[in-house]
C-alpha cells in the first residue's frame, strides 16, 4: 500500500535556503529590475553622486594625518611622518582638556536630553485637545528651525548683566548684583546642555509620536476595562511599544559622545569660558583652520571617528543583548 501511494504522490521538491546565485545571474536580475523601475531607481542617482563626491573621494585626504602637510604641499608630495601626529595628540594637554569638556557636556545631554523628549512626547500624545496639542507641538518644534547664530545672539543678550536672566534672579533674590553668566566658565556645561535641549527637544519627539500613533487603541481599551490607571497604561503599553526606537536613539547618542555641537560652541564660547567650552570639534577647527596645522587636526578627527565607530558597535551589541539578541541597526 505504501509503495502504491509513493508511486501516486510525487516527491516534494527540495527547497534550498541561503543558496547563493551566480554573479552573472544576480547582475542580470538587477538589470531586469532596474529596467522595470528605471523612473524610481533613477531618483537615487543624484544621491549616489553626492555621496561619492563629498563622502568617498575625501577619504583619500585622511592620508595627511600620517604626513607633515602644509598649504604649499599636495596630498602626494607631503612627506610621511607615520604616527608622529598621533604621538603628539597623546601628550597634548589642550586636547585632553577638550576631551574632558566634550564628555562632560555629552554625558549631561545624554542623562537629561535623552529622557526629556520621551517624556514630552508622551505628554503630547496624552493631550486630548486638538488645537492645544498642535500649539504645544508647534512651540516645541520652533527653536529647531532657528540657527545657532540667532539663538546664540538671544542667549548672549539674555545672559548679559542687564539681560532677562539677571533681572529674574535679582527680583527673586538669588543674586545680589548682576553678572554676565556666559563669562562664568563653571556654568558653561549647564548652559550648553540646557540650551541644546531647549532647541532640539521638540524635534526629538517626532519619532516617538510617530511610533505611538501606530499603537493599537484596543490595548488601552482592554487596560481600562482591567482597571489600569493612565500611568500604568503608559508604563505597560506605551513605553514597551517605543522600545525599539528608544534603543536606536540611545545607540546613535552613545556613538556621538565624542562629537559636540560646533555651531553652538563657536557662538557661545569666549575668552573667559574657553577653559570649559573648548570641545573636540572646536579644537580641531581651531588647529586646522586658524593655526593651519592640517595634519594634526586630521589626526585628531580620524582618532575621534575610530572611537565613535567602536562606541557605535559596542552600544549596538549591548542593546541587542538587552533586546533578546535583536539588533535595531
From TrEMBL:
Which intervals hold domain ABC transmembrane type-1? 99-315
The principal location of this protein is membrane
Q: InterPro entries this protein is in?
A: MetI-like (IPR000515), MetI-like_sf (IPR035906), UgpAE/MalFG_permease (IPR050809)
Where do the TM regions start and end? 44-66, 103-125, 145-165, 294-313
Q: Which CDD domains match?
A: TM_PBP2
UniProt entry keywords in alphabetical sequence: Cell membrane, Membrane, Transmembrane, Transmembrane helix, Transport
* Intracellular or extracellular location(s): Cell membrane
| Record's signal peptide | none
Q: What SUPFAM superfamilies does this protein's entry cite?
A: MetI-like
One Pfam family matching this protein: BPD_transp_1
Topology in membrane = Multi-pass membrane protein
Q: Which family, according to UniProt?
A: Belongs to the binding-protein-dependent transport system permease family.
Among PANTHER family, the record links this protein to: BLL4140 PROTEIN
Q: What name goes with this protein?
A: Carbohydrate ABC transporter membrane protein 1, CUT1 family
Naturally occurring in which organism (per UniProt): Paenibacillus macquariensis
